[in-house]
Amino acid sequence: MPWEGFGEIAEKLRRSTVHISSGRRGHGSGVIVKPDGVIITNAHVAAAASFEVELWDGSRAKGELLARDPRRDLAVLRVAKRGLPAVTLADSDRLRVGELVIAIGNPLGFIGALTTGVVHGIGSVPGLGGRDWIQTDVQLAPGNSGGPLANAEGHVVGINTMIAQGLGLAIPSNAVSRLLRGAASPPRLGVTIRPVRVSIEGKPRIGLILLEIAEGSAAEAASFLPGDILVGVDGRKLESIDDFEKALGEGDERLARLQFLRGDRTSIRTVAVRLAYPDTAAA
Known about the structure:
By secondary structure, the protein is mostly beta strands. It has 3 domains: 3-78, Trypsin-like serine proteases (Thrombin, subunit H, Beta Barrel); 92-180, Beta Barrel (Thrombin, subunit H); 191-274, Pdz3 Domain. The chain contains 4 helices and 19 strands. Strand 4 (52-54) and strand 5 form a beta hairpin. The relative contact order is 0.14.
């Protein structure tokens, strides 16, 4: 990339990056992927009942949720505006270790902050299931979640999501493309989860802590609470998010028996949950 063109690339990315606010629940970033107001962000950024989107020029609009996939931590929003500066989604399968990448977001209240780095790895991360992540050394902070990770041409290769083991993790852009196409999803519980280590009868295990419970979801109907920790499905131990996703995908509108910990975490509880395929709204 010619360095004299870096400023132009950065400015285009800034104009396509938005600030998403959900009141007291916090804030994050998003990126415009279609000129008619379609925006991609993280599911945990778009977790509130309503949210406000601020564009690069300072104008604000109410965001409408079109689709949300907590399993992959992605959400699709729309604002009632047209002619917006949309990014180009790259083929993330062509990204290589060592490539220069650019992250844009709104960390700690700094609107349109830019950081650069290189790709350290592409693939699964221990404790986060079998799904691929783009692992980079770009500096991320609260507020970067949902913002774009772009290559040297300014094309978006991922959506920045979290920091793990000192590296920034981004969801590959091909996962975003699948969501925008309305690709079918397996049954879901309606939760946002993170892996944690737990001890059961003195033996260490992996559990999945429930960070958020979606309103009207199967998890809410089953009286799950934030802070509960899933440890099994139909009697099988969970070792990763991938295990959980596979277990939920074994049938349509099936009854799953979920094992979980609550409170003092001294005993395993079991609840039967009726799962159904979600409405896969496409942008």
